[in-house]
Structure formats: C-alpha cells, structure tokens
Batch of 2 targets.
Target 1
Amino acid sequence: MWWESPGHLDVKNGRLYIAGMSAIDIANKFKTPLYVYDGNRIMDIYRKFYSTVKKHTDLEVRLHYAMKTNSNRKILQLLLKEGAWIDAVSPEECKAALEAGFLKEKILFTGTSVSSEDMKQLVGMDVRINIDSLSQLKRLGKITTDAEISLRMDPGIAGAGHSWRTMTAGKESHGVPIKFSIPENQIVEAAKLAKDYGFNVVGLHEHIGSGWRTSEEVNEFLQTVDIVLDKAKQISEFCNLEFINFGGGPGVRYQENHPEFPLERYAEETCRKVKESGVEINALCFEPGRYIVADSGLLLVEVVDVKERYGDIIAGVNSGFNHLIRPVMYGSYHEIINCSKADAKPEAEVTVAGNLCETGDVFAAKRMMPMPEEGDVLAIHSAGAYGFTMASRYNMRSLPKEVLL
Ligand code: LLP
C-alpha cells in the first residue's frame, strides 16, 4: 500500500498497525470515534524539515509550528522538546501554547480581522504580534508602542493551495477578495509608519497558502521569496530586521497519485535566495503545520450500519463531518483503510457516510474498497492536520477522543 511506512503504518496479516500497535486493539481499548497520533512520526518529520533547511543556511532556523493544525497539548509538548517555535492565530492559541510550556518569546501571533480586544490580550501575554493591516497597526499603537512587531506582506502575485479556500496571497481567489496581509505596494510605508509610532520592526512575513506540493507551486512560492527579499532590503535601510518568515504551506500526499513535496529543493533554493540577496538577518523562519502532523494522525471510526439503496452500498459510521470536515469543506480526499482487511483487494464501490443529518455528510462517495461489514473499524488516513481542531458539536454529538502513541 502506498501509505505504508515502516514503524509508523504497517500491515501484518491483513491488519493495520499504528506505531507497532494493532489499530483494532487501540479502537477496542479507547473506543471510537478516536483520533490516534503517532508521536515518533511527528518528531521524525519535524527533524527532517529542520535538518533539511539547516543544512543550507548558517542562519538560525526557527520552525514556528502552526498550532491551528493540531493543538493537542501532548503534541505541543513533543514539539516544544524538539525546539519548535509557535505560529498562533488567536489569543486562545497563545494561551494554550504558554500553558504547554512555550516561552512567550517563541510565540508569533499572526491573525486576521484582529480586534483591539484581542490585541489587549496579546499585549498582556507579551507575545510578538505579526501585523496584518494598517488598521491593526494604528489600533495597536493606541494600546502600546513598546513592542517588537513584524509585518505580514502580500507578495502581490497569486498564492498557492490545495483549494481556492486555502490560497492566501494575491488580489483574489476564485473571485473572492483575499483578506490577509498588507499589500506589497504598502509594506514599506507600513514599516515607516510603524517606526514613526515607536515600534521595533523585527520581522517581515509572508504566507501564500496551504497545501501546495507540485514543483510548479514551489516555483510560485520561490517567486514570492524574491519579492519578499526585495522589500526586506528596502525596510532594512531604516529597521533592524531580525528575521524573515516564509510561512507554511508545504503539502503532503493524501492520495497515491499526489507527488511528494520537494522539501530539498524548497529548502535549498529559499536559503540560496536569502544568502544571495545580502539581506542582513539573524534567523530564517518557516511555519509548517500540515507537513509536520498530517500523516501522523488517523481517525478511527466504526461501521455501524451497512445498507443497499438502488444499487449503492452505504456504510454508515459512528462519526461525521463534525469530526473531520475536510472532505465536505474542500472536497478533500482521505484514504480509508479497513483495519481488519488493510491489504485486501478493493472489490466493492462503497459510500462511507457519517451519522449527521446532512446529505453531504460522507467521507467518501462511491469509493472502491474491500466490502465493509458492521463492526469493522475504518481508519481515515492523514487526519492529523486540521482534523480535531476543526471539529464541532453539530447535532449535539460529542467531540471525538484523541490518543497520542
Ligand atoms: N502560517 C499561517 C500564517 C497560516 O495561516 C497557516 C495556515 C500556516 C502557517 C500553516 O499552513 P500549513 O503548513 O499547515 O499548510 N483548514 C485547511 C487549511 C487552512 C490553513 C490555514 N492557515 C485544510 O484543512 O486544508
């Protein structure tokens, strides 16, 4: 199977093993619906990302884990031990990161539509704020000017992402104006204004979107790197920039035909561009989320009802888009593995449906897979990113449980 990965996901005698433990035993012990995360896998990928970047630069490398991806406290603590920094998007996330043990200096808040109320809380926690608009900058100036801030810029060319909903740069996506960041033609003025207010502008940031993985998309990203570096140079003439932050976005394989993210090229070319630009900074920052945790996590659900309707087979499970919304929200594909027939031939066309009162509540429609039976445990693959964090209590259902192996 394309998703097998020794020690992380194995198939033995047709059964799925996660981190060396039988998925069915885990389901019996903790009960479904259940998110299962493999801690070793998270650490391996974090280290791979860090070392791949670090080998191409003498600058300090900071990986600000985007905790909106998965803010499970135990996962945050694993990453804290690895030396991670934090990308937080709400005062609540900042608070959770502090409670998990992160130092305030290591937390960068990047929000959008940020209220003055939010900013009062952020200033109270003394975390660094990455400014998303001139309005935000001016309103922060009324609360304090004794702060180190960074500026989030839009490179002015289209962003990239697995869905139009996750592209965050350029003028618009799918006809919808982009709401994030300060446009490139206002960024130098914004830095001057910040300086006039008395702020210490220490960083320049971009994030062009989430879930890009083809080499064409990496090319697009690299074009934005040039634009950011050009602006960083101009801003450096009157501010001491400590870092440039290139955001997150590197995608993962959700499906067999998805290419592997070209991490080596992404790291090598970004670091080379920074070096060649001559911009003087101390640190190079990235904000990976999905890449670090997506495939470490699986959502285990149980087949509770199997029916045939007008020739279609519907396998009803004890979960729904309240637990994993990605298939419904973005049309995202997630592999579905039958934990007791993990290497069996796909023999039936099955629609895996949730238990919510919505027609669209399906994890997969008409997907070829081994015929499921009542009581089977299904593992929904690559659910570690934007799974639990996007869960809700729709239909008054409980949130799923989580376990870290
Ligand atoms: N930095 C910033 C400023 C971000 O807004 C994000 C994600 C990241 C970093 C991390 O991006 P990543 O490395 O994970 O691609 N719910 C959607 C994804 C939304 C991404 C939001 N921002 C999904 O399930 O695909």
Note: DSSP finds eleven helices and 22 strands in the chain.
Target 2
Amino acid sequence: MTSISRRGFMLVLSSPSGAGKTSIATKILEVDKNVNVSISVTTRLMRPGEREGEDYFFVTKEQFQSMLHNNELLEHADVFGHSYGTPKHYVFDTLTGGKDIIFDIDWQGTQQLAQLARVDLVSVFILPPSLGELEKRLNTRAQDSADVILNRMKEASNEMSHWAEYDYVIVNEDLEQSVAQVHAIITAERLKRNRQRGLLDFVNKLRGVN
Ligand code: 5GP
C-alpha cells in the first residue's frame, strides 16, 4: 500500500436527447463502484417508468426557485421550457470522499461547472451516428409524445453545436463500445498527476530524499 490517494473529478456527459448518454452512465455506474451519479432536480413532469430520487427529484417551480434562492444549486439551466439544476451538497460530499461523480447535464450546465472548477471537470460529448438514428431512438423510447419528440429533434442541432467545448467526443454507434471508451477516459483521468495526492512524498521516499 502506498500513501497515494486521489481527488475525485466531475465527469459530465452531454448529448442531444436520445443519443444514449443515460444508458452509458447507467452501465458505468453498474460496474464502477468509485463513481456516483448526481441526481438533478427538475420542474418537468415525471415520464412513465421514471422514479423520484432515481432519475430526478421532481419539484414544483416554487421549490426550484427556493433552492436557487438559498444557493443550494451548483448549476442550473432552462431546457425545453423546464428548469433543471444540480444540488450542491451531494457533489461536494462525493468529491471530498475521493470518488468521481457523473453528471447528465446540458452545455449550459457544463459551462457553469467549467467556470466553477475547471481542473475538477472532465467533459464528454456524445454524438448519435446519424440524425435518422437519433429520431429512431427517440421514437423507440416511447416516453414522449410526438410533439415533444419533434421539439427535441429541433433542439438536437442546437445542443450539438456545442460539441467543440468538450474535452472528449464519442460517436455512440454501439453501446458496449461507447461504455468502454468512457471507461478508458475515466482510467486515464484518474492517473493524471494533479489528481494524485501524496505523489511527491512517495517519490521522495523512492529516491531516498526528504
Ligand atoms: P430530460 O428531460 O430528457 O431528462 O433532460 C433534458 C436535458 O436536460 C438533457 O440534455 C439533460 O442532460 C439536461 N439536464 C438534466 N439535468 C440537468 C441539470 O441538472 N442541469 C442542466 N444544466 N441540464 C440538465
């Protein structure tokens, strides 16, 4: 055992709705117990199959405003006419505990996290292999009405225009392959020199210097 420990980082996955970021995040969480997920608050309605406290904390507009007012949100944004935000306390607890934390947030939230703590942020943009595939995935998800899907297709272009602001870009053609790619990013980011605490002491000991 060495005395080297690690500071956790914030792993943001962004993509247009339906490009697969939620499936990727779920798989990562299943196999890597050193990663937690940030559960956002939202004012949008719960979709069929969603669960309170697992997919989101569903709140009223008033509750959201009060969280904002009390400085309880790390970042927040309006997406598709609803408010979304990241509760602060869980993120801080996770990072100080030496774990990493995954965020499924949009480009607006990512920009805010970058302003707050650039060194602790690792951002990944997930692209669909084609527009046709994106539409197919939104339709097969069958959680949204035709109107909502049409709106999300329009928004996809806007969301995708922000790809160049991200550290990594993955084209999600195959879920298993994309999960492996995100794993590779996580592994490399954990080895970054500035995330490893106690390295200087460790190397000094190896070199026999004080
Ligand atoms: P959905 O309604 O499909 O769950 O999410 C819509 C969009 O809102 C997605 O692009 C998702 O990444 C984004 N989103 C979800 N939670 C948050 C959040 O807490 N902050 C920000 N900025 N975006 C979020």
Note: Residues 17, 40, 44, 75, 77, 79, 84-86, 104-106, 108-109 surround guanosine-5'-monophosphate (CB under 6 Å).
